[in-house]
Each structure stands twice: as structure tokens, then as C-alpha cells.
Write a structure and sequence with these properties.
single chain
């Protein structure tokens, strides 16, 4: 199944959006130490109906993407996920 099968219904959220070393390598949010499983769990908590796909980001070579239901713009969804990651990090004891 290709990502084109989801065109218009889903958005692709790469793990690299949060973990890449630089924006040139694909990062779109504040850098965070997050794994693919955590990303899927956060998307599920936000009600985005995530589908995990095993692909490699072309610029950063970081493996992992999640196809989420399109409920808002991509930028707003990335910001929501980033905010949730920040909340999880601040809730964890040091």
C-alpha cells in the first residue's frame, strides 16, 4: 500500500520532524528525544488514528513515519504533537 492511497484523508508525520539534528535534515519542531512507539501513542491520545509505516526519511535517513487522520493542517498537528511531547517530558521525574 502506497501513501498515495491515503491522499486527502491522511497526513504523513515523520519521526525526523522531532529528532533530526537540524532543520535542513528534516526537523520541523523543537528537538526531542522520542521514539516511534511514543509518537504513535501520542497521536493515538490526540485522536489522530495513527498508522505506523516503515519508511526512511529521505534527508535524515531516520526510520519511521506515522500516517494520521487529517483533522487540521499539518503545521497545527505537528505543533500539537510537539506540545504533547513537551508535557510528557515535563511530567517525568528527573
Amino acid at each position: 500500500m502506497s501513501m498515495r492511497d491515503y491522499e486527502g484523508e491522511r497526513l504523513v508525520i515523520w519521526l525526523a520532524y522531532f529528532t533530526a539534528p537540524s532543520r535542513a535534515k528534516g526537523r520541523r519542531a523543537l528537538k526531542a528525544k522520542i521514539g516511534l512507539k511514543e509518537l504513535v501513542d501520542i497521536c493515538r491520545e490526540l485522536g489522530l488514528d495513527p498508522i505506523e509505516v516503515d519508511k526512511v526519511h529521505p534527508a535524515s535517513k531516520i526510520r519511521g513515519l506515522v500516517a494520521v487522520r487529517k483533522v487540521n493542517s499539518k503545521v497545527k498537528i505537528i505543533k500539537e504533537i510537539s506540545r504533547k511531547v513537551g508535557q510528557l517530558r515535563s511530567d517525568k521525574p528527573s
